[in-house]
Amino acid sequence: MSQTRALWRERENSLLIGSPLVLLGAIAILPTLAYLIVTPSFAHARAIGCTLIPVYAIAEIVGLGKLAFCLRRQFDVISFFAVGTIIVFLVIALFTGVFMVGFIFPF
User: pLDDT per residue over 44-73, tens digit each?
Assistant: First the structure.
């Protein structure tokens, strides 16, 4: 019984750490690209933006790895929230791609 409880706690911690890493990185990449790299508003904005993009990528990879750990067992409430987070991430990634094209190639 204690082995099951420890595994549940590890999956719960992975969900609580992985979800913000995935979603905050996905939400922050568009403003960084638009206001720091494409149209810089201060002196070293492009350097800061080019530094932040790999940080977001690392956060996405680590967060998706944590969410994948949540999906290893049978389907339960932790798996449900992990799948929900992944679906929200995919929607954000889709719209971010559409808006990036809009910023880079304006009409």
Answer: 999 999 999 999 999 999 999 999 998 887
